[in-house]
Design a protein that fits this description.
- It contains 8 helices and 11 strands.
- Strands 3, 4, 5, 6, 7, 10 and 11 form a 7-stranded mixed beta sheet that branches. A two-stranded antiparallel ribbon has the order 1-2.
- Strand 8 and strand 9 form a beta hairpin.
Length: 304
């Protein structure tokens, strides 16, 4: 191995270790308990049908079985469930070219990796399995769900350093693939900047089959142009370039208006299909946003 390759390998290991230390500390201090309260114990497995006994909830009565056998036995029948002790978590992460964009501290892809790590270590700490699906304009990589720290470190490495073949962003094919390979209900975190075309159909199917949470990752400069004179903007996914006079107020307003419309369209799509979301920004601490999501969802589930 050459000196350059050794340096590159050391840099990769150092980055992975940094992400692990930072996110495992957050999990230990905050998120593992919140993760458990929000996701663990929500799934129930059907085990058997038995005769109704005093104290059973009326809503557990299986009226079809009762109609067939109730008259014969002189009693109603109820469904018996057992709590799912193990969840499957799948991280569906956008690795398109636009993910390289970001602020001084973090690019969108680096932010996605940190947040995915927090979620992965929370799952592992609660003895759940975690899988990874990377996508651009097609499915780039699928790692089936497993347990354990070495497995989680591999997921972090792939999110940070995987080299995609595609440049564009198409969540639709990734969700179609997910629905084929993950047949049991899972908790799915879809992490992307959502600079994509229409994928409402696939989103609807996935939201019915799984507990789907969308995590839009954005950079403030994608929503508002700074006043810095004439600049050349390049689309990271298509390579298309355009010269823009950012000192022109109408140009900046039009840019902001288009960004606001995209954001509103995404929000409407997620709400329409009952998908929870956590918006994260490259220039802001993601911890309050995650905590807020967990608290809101915990309160909502408590009312059910």
């Amino acid at each position: 191995m050459s000196g350059t390759q050794e340096q590159t390998a050391r840099d990769i290991l150092r980055k992975i270790r940094h992400v692990e230390l930072k996110t495992r500390g957050l999990v230990a201090a905050t998120f593992a308990g919140q993760y458990r309260s929000v996701f663990k114990g929500r799934g129930m497995n059907f085990e058997e049908v038995r005769e109704y006994a005093p104290g059973d909830e009326v809503r557990t009565i299986d009226w079809n079985v009762t109609a067939r056998f109730g008259e014969m036995h002189g009693n109603a029948f109820v469904k018996k469930f057992t709590e799912e002790r193990e969840l499957t978590v799948v991280l569906v992460v956008d690795v398109s070219a636009s993910g390289k964009f970001g602020g001084i501290e973090l690019s969108k892809r680096e932010l996605a990796a940190e947040v995915a790590s927090v979620l992965a270590f929370s799952a592992i700490k609660n003895n759940d399995k975690v899988g990874l699906l990377l996508f651009s304009d097609h499915v780039e990589l699928f790692i089936p769900p497993k347990k354990g720290r070495p497995h989680t470190l591999r997921l972090i490495r792939e999110i940070l350093f995987f080299t995609p073949a595609g440049r564009g962003t198409k969540p639709g094919p990734a969700l179609d693939y997910l629905n084929k390979v993950v047949t049991r209900r899972a908790v799915v975190f879809l992490i992307s900047d959502f600079q994509a075309g229409e994928f409402s159909r696939q989103l609807s199917v996935t939201a019915r089959r799984h507990d789907l949470v969308a995590i839009p990752v954005v950079d403030p400069r994608e929503r508002e142009l700074p006043d810095v004179g004439r600049v050349t903007l390049e689309d990271a996914e298509t390579g298309e370039q355009i010269e823009v006079n950012t000192s022109d107020r109408s140009t900046r307003d039009a840019y902001a208006h288009l960004a606001d419309k995209r954001r509103a369209d995404l929000e409407r799509t997620l709400v329409r299909h009952g998908v929870d979301s956590i918006e994260l920004q490259t220039d802001a601490d993601y911890i309050p946003a995650l905590r807020g999501f967990f608290r809101t969802r915990e309160r909502r589930l408590a009312r059910l």
